[in-house]
Amino acid sequence: MNAPSSSSSSSPKMDPESGPSPSHLKNTTLTSLTWSSLSHAISTTPILTSSTGLLRPGELLAVMGPSGSGKTTLLNLLSRRLSPSSPSPILLNGTPLPLPQFQSLTRFVEQTDSLIGALTPRETLHFASRLSSAGISKKERRERVEGLLGSFGLVEQGDVVVGTVTKKGLSGGQKRRLGVAKEVITGPRVVILDEPTSGLDGRGGWEVVKFLRGLARENNLIIVASIHQPSTATFDLFDKLLLLSEGKTHYFGSVEGVGGYYESQLGMVIPRHVNPAEWLLEQTNIDYADDKEAARARLEEMQSGWERSDLKKKLDEDVAAVAAGAEKGGDELVLGDDEARDKKPGMASVVVTLVHRSFIKSYRDVVAYGIRLAMYTGLAIMMGTVWLRLPATQDSIIPFTNSIFYGSAFLSFMAVAYCPAYLEDYNQYAKEKRNGLYGATAMTLSNFLVGTPYLFLISIVFSVISYWLSNFQPTAKAFFTWVFWLFLDLLAAEGLVVFMASLFPSFVISLALVAFANGLWMSVDGFMVPPGTLNVFWKYVFHYWDYQKYVFENMMINEFSERVYTCAETADGCQCMWQTDLADQCLIRGQGVLDQYGYKPGYMGKDVGIMLAIIFGYRLAGWLVLKLKK
């Protein structure tokens, strides 16, 4: 069937022949992908039942079926993201491989784009290569990236950002092709895609599938893609079809032979001038049938017809023959190829790459830190002008105290603004972890390293504006002490965000939990209720590991421990709100204010140690969550 017409003469050429195909993509050793009696169930509910298949290099398989038929489950099993209900290994060249070896030969492309919007296609491929391979020269890496851009029809868009909330980037089809390129840059032999045409119009879907067919044939790869209701032109691009319904196989074979199979085996004729894909989906979907019983009976007959068909018997024989051949040494090709593949980068290299990638994202995407910096700058101006040029008098003591609480507590509270940026990083990590690129340790270290300079910058900007406007202790030592505690405050607050958002990777839930936790810390940090009057439960359960407690306490000591304030002079003499040893001089020693809270200088080293422990604790908790999640 002819391809759909396009009104755009500038539509990019989709075949890999449009550019030089990098040599490392070409498969010369993998001869088959097989699976037999593959099943999966949740509790006692079967999701996929006894699926069998055989694919050869250069073939493109369409996995089709109505919603809930088990398509995504099959893809997750084939990529070994899920374990089958019974021992049913996925075989390459008839051989079951260890998971790390298997992952080096396969790649999974998820339905949602695992792309960073602030990066360009060239940068996306460059970082993907650095994360997955080591031991190749810069020249060779650059040649691989440029070769893939040409092969995937993305040369003209090589330096265009993928797309962010503030800047439009690639089209939907270009993003899908880039998503595939990002996974195949390491030269996998099997590529598995979940709904690669989802969200695209008919033309865009056809172009993506046409490209996948060319990629498979040009490089001798095996490509598996689930697809929902393709057009006739798109359907005809596939080499083979696996049709599922309610987790059971109804057909596995060539696309061109599906009509003959249904006519000869079941007496069902695909009407002329009807999209065969739509017809097949209609026959296997009983959700909207008027006569449920008749539809159910037809569905069972289709499934049992497949089980007793000659096509099914031939498939079982071929799968068994591949496994038998492997016992005679056919697996050596895959193993030898795997030994010659690029080495995995070490932990230090992965962390440096992630930091570099995140740094580019952070300064291009305002959501990451730009909005937060603007917000904190505005907050500093507001705070400095509300508590403007407070004099060193007793009337300013309570405003100074309120300002210290507000400056420390509200800044940590506003760390909730980091939730959306971190969740984007988390989703990227989850996908790349499932593809075996890196784990929780690299993610935790890189996230901390890339965020720390920005938090220090925020601390400096906020302090330069608000500290001097409010007229806190006017010495360089006091200023930098204030900056230091504000910096630790933000480090702890961001660690809390990372932990909560990793535990519950939902924007609404993580936002609510972080806000609640900061509200709790503000309540028990010692400002609203002095430590001496805070009841035993809140004091011993929460107060002593409240990071805001140590920030507030040391900021109070920084302001009051070495400063004196003038009392009010009246007709009756001098009236001091706090009685200290300087009352006879009509002055208040700042330590008298601290005595109300039970604060004394001299414990800064211990408090810094506790703060570092809290910061480390949050990061460790976040690491454990990432480590334990599958």
From TrEMBL:
Coiled coil: none annotated. PROSITE patterns: ABC_TRANSPORTER_1, ABC_TRANSPORTER_2. It is a multi-pass membrane protein. Residues 1-28 are annotated as: Disordered. Residues 1-11 have a biased composition (Low complexity). Residues 33-271 form the ABC transporter domain. It is found in: Membrane. Pfam families: ABC2_membrane (PF01061), ABC2_membrane_7 (PF19055), ABC_tran (PF00005). Keywords: ATP-binding, Membrane, Nucleotide-binding, Transmembrane, Transmembrane helix, Transport. GO terms for cellular component: membrane. This is Podospora anserina S mat+ genomic DNA chromosome 7, supercontig 1. The lineage of its organism: Eukaryota, Fungi, Dikarya, Ascomycota, Pezizomycotina.
